[in-house]
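In the laboratory, one determines a bound structure by crystallizing the protein with its ligand and collecting diffraction data. In a computational setting the workflow is compressed into a single prediction: the sequence and the ligand go in, and a structural description comes out. We illustrate the idea with adenosine monophosphate.
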Amino acid sequence: MGSTIFSKIIRKEIPADLVHEDDQCIAFRDINPQAPTHILIIPRKEIRNVAEMEDEDAPLLGHLLRVARDVAKDQGLADGGYRLVVNNGAAAGQTVWHLHVHLLGGRALSWPPG
Ligand code: AMP
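The predicted complex, in structure-token form:
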């Protein structure tokens, strides 16, 4: 049994605004959006972050990017552009210890990030 809030969302114990679901991952709207479109793509498998992924997880992480591409297109972001972010560790701002890809779009995004 997973211990993070994302595991509870995967198990449908708490609600989320789902935009995609398949056998390997789900995608849902971030509860505290940092852009007009802010969606999280997360694996069903409990992986704390990129640093703790196993080599065998590489196809799964590739799948997350493929889903991010398709969700971005569905959300109308493909032409204007969007940003994918994976925070790894506390210093990078990771607060939920279940690997997730942030999909951000719908406004101009500055660089470098904070
Ligand atoms: P990070 O800081 O990279 O770990 O990102 C965690 C993200 O999860 C933050 O953007 C939060 O707003 C988001 N978040 C936390 N709880 C929920 C929830 N119950 N539903 C949707 N998004 C959430």
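The chain is about 20% helix and 20% strand. Keep in mind that any predicted model is a hypothesis to be tested, not a measurement.
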